[in-house]
Amino acid sequence: MNDFNLKGYVGFWAERVEKFFESYIVSADIHASGLVKSMNYSLGAGGKRMRPAVIFSSFGIFDNYFDKVTPYAAAVEILHTYSLIHDDLPAMDNDDFRRGKPTNHKVFGEATAILAGDALLTKAFEIMLNKEINPDIEAPLMAEAAFKLAVAAGDKGMVGGQFADMQAEKTDPEVETVDYIHMHKTASLIAYCAELGAVLGYGEEIDKANMKSYGRKIGLAFQVVDDVLDVTSTAEELGKSIGKDAAEGKATYTALYGVERSMRIASELTAEAIAIVEPYGKAARPCIEIAKYVLERKN
Amino acid sequence: MNDFNLKGYVGFWAERVEKFFESYIVSADIHASGLVKSMNYSLGAGGKRMRPAVIFSSFGIFDNYFDKVTPYAAAVEILHTYSLIHDDLPAMDNDDFRRGKPTNHKVFGEATAILAGDALLTKAFEIMLNKEINPDIEAPLMAEAAFKLAVAAGDKGMVGGQFADMQAEKTDPEVETVDYIHMHKTASLIAYCAELGAVLGYGEEIDKANMKSYGRKIGLAFQVVDDVLDVTSTAEELGKSIGKDAAEGKATYTALYGVERSMRIASELTAEAIAIVEPYGKAARPCIEIAKYVLERKN
Fold first, then answer.
1. What is the ipTM of this complex?
2. Any CB–CB contact under 8 A between A179 and chain B?
3. Cβ pair A32:B112 closer than 8 A
4. Which tens digits make up the pLDDT trace of B69-103?
5. Are A86 and B118 in contact (CB under 8 A)?
6. Residue of A27, A114, A134, A142 to mutate, interface with B, max B Cβ within 10 Å
7. CB contact under 8 A, A123 and B32
8. Residue A1 falls within a domain, yes or no?
9. DSSP label at B202?
10. Side-chain half-sphere of B107: how many Cα atoms within 13 Å?
């Protein structure tokens, strides 16, 4: 079974999401055009577009009317992009490069970067709840999708994880703290992506729970591999600074367990994730391939 | 007709909204408790609670089941609070005091202030879309309320206005630019508040348009009076720095028109706002009193 072209699969959905950005994220007024330019700069800066791929692959288990998913996949990628812009700010991780390009605040200044992030976060909800561009999504589904996004992205999810990450720089990392950070900073939104596929595909509650669990496991594995790549990769391969987490005393898996044991943990997590979706049969193939990629990726 | 106690009216709803904050904005995990503390610091810092009052007063024209409005009024005040935290940041307006208390970043640091703002913005949507705490709001109404909030608060609304405001510091203010800034930075969200009352009260489309127009006019008048108070008031009366806008070359009405003409414009706007709601009869009394207050307030 080596006939699955994951790069092509992910690229296919990435293109749809990027087309949506181009058509939807446009300036309504000359006074805000600089803001929209800054938003589009970060949206267009590439990246793996992994979250949209997780949404589409999960949805494919339950339905095949993929077109109606595009605005939702775009909304989640937009929310992810806001979090990168704010994380890179001088007061936060103070990063000059992201995906091989200067970070938003390096190009547009701090004030604009803060506002671009705020506007993108708001935009994610606007898109999900926009009846005109989502004629085939019923209101209860819209509300469920947007509510769960808010929970996954807020103080009980992603932002809570980022906060704990900033705090942890000041202390020696403990297992429990590192688990909290990874689970919330990264895995929370990826778990949401996998669950969203089941929500939009009218899955049962048990399916939503299954997909969320699958997403949490690959999300956690993704972050563990991130920690490993930070110490084993080169800046060129990664397109961002390396060794930075370790230098700053960040709470990472490699700091706790070293590279080998970290990779073993990631391997177990992806195996568990695959076991969750395998019972769904052939339609789960993309979910399985994404789980494998998370473990084997080199950047 | 001097028997209306506006202070009591506004305080009555403020208390409900503040009770809601206390019960809902709580930490789910010790790792994020510092974040939630920072969120609650700014939520509890007082303020006029004008936006909730506008929502309740507008709703009162259409319905009297006020209890179901509380989470929505709280959500809008939460969103307003996020915008104050981010506006006060060193990279933005760099304010040390707000409502007579040190600003969020002065107490908790910049990183936490950015994240607290992000979490509050996200929380506003979470609250509006939470089925459990809004058992009497149907999904289409939820989705409409949250969608319109996103439009009013994002790049086409409040954030767009704040961006234009930052940009305008670098140039001489023009009438058209100042109008754009005030309309978007301040009036957009207050117009939304007035419209929201009609949305939640099952008003007709014409009612929603009327209330939005009323809200836009009092919102604009509110900002014009703000500009006037910045040059005529004392720091003690306002509870924040004064003369700062003028010193920084901010785009204000007073810079364009002077104090007297600015007050005449504000007076016309409130008269127009009152004329819009008067046909709704006795139920519009609170809306009328709020419009008068906007013009006459001293802080």
1. 0.96
2. no
3. no
4. 999 999 999 999 999 999 999 999 999 999 889 99
5. yes
6. A114
7. no
8. no
9. T
10. 19
